[in-house]
C-alpha cells in the first residue's frame, strides 16, 4: 500500500508540474515558443505583469519538492540496498531546493541569491540524486538504466547551462536539466505502482 501511495504522489506531482508550467507559459507575456526557449522557468514564478499565473508555477515548485521528499522517505527508500543515507540527504537537498525556488522569487536583488541557491540545490542535487539511486538498488534493470541516463543528461545540461548563463538559449539548457528530474519522478511513480 505504501508504494502505491508514493507512486500516486510521484505521478500526480510530476503531471501537475508539467501542466502548471504549460498553463503559466501560455499566459506569459510572450509567445509560447519564445517563453519556452528564451525565458527561464523561474521567470514564470515572478509576481509581475509578465507572468499573471505566477502563483500556479510557484505552487508546482512547492508540490514537486514535497512529492520528492514524501515519496522517497515514505516508500522508495525501501528499494535501496546501499547509499541510503546519501540518497536521503540528497532528497532533502533537492526537495527543499525546489521549495525555496517556489517561495523565494527570482528577479529581486534582495532575494535572488537565495533563489539561485534553491535552484542549484534542486537541479544539481536532483540529478546527482538520480545518478546515485540508479546504482543503489538491488538490480540494474531498465528502470535503473533509464534513471542513470536521465541523471547523466541532467548533469551535462546543468554543466552547459552553468557556463552559458549569458547565452540566449540558456533557458533551454535549464529546462533540459530540470525535465530529467520531472521525468524521473513520473517513471518512479509508474515503477512503484507496477512493482
Characterize the structure shown.
The chain has 195 residues and is mostly helical. 73% of the residues lie in helices and 0% in strands. The protein has one domain (2-194). It has seven helices and no strands. Helix 1 packs antiparallel against helix 7, helix 3 (54-74) packs antiparallel against helix 4 (84-103) and helix 5 (112-134) packs antiparallel against helix 6 (142-162). The longest helix is centred in the first third of the chain and has 25 residues, at 2-26.
Task: Describe the structure using short key phrases.
195 residues; globular; 7 helices
List the helices and strands and how they pair.
Blueprint: H1 2-26, H2 32-38, H3 54-74, H4 84-103, H5 112-134, H6 142-162, H7 170-194
Task: Tell me briefly what this model is.
The chain has helices spanning 2-26, 32-38, 54-74, 84-103, 112-134, 142-162, 170-194. The protein is mostly helical and 195 residues long.
What is the C-alpha radius of gyration, as a whole number of Å? 16 Å
Q: What is the straight-line distance between the termini?
A: 11 Å
Number of helices: 7
Q: How many DSSP-defined strands?
A: 0
**Shape descriptor:** globular
The oligomerization state is single chain
Q: Beta-strand percentage? A: under 5%
Structural class from helices and strands? mainly alpha
Order of helices and strands: HHHHHHH
Mean pLDDT over the full residue set: 95
Largest sheet data = none
Any idea how many domains?
1
Helix content: over 70%
Low-confidence stretches: none
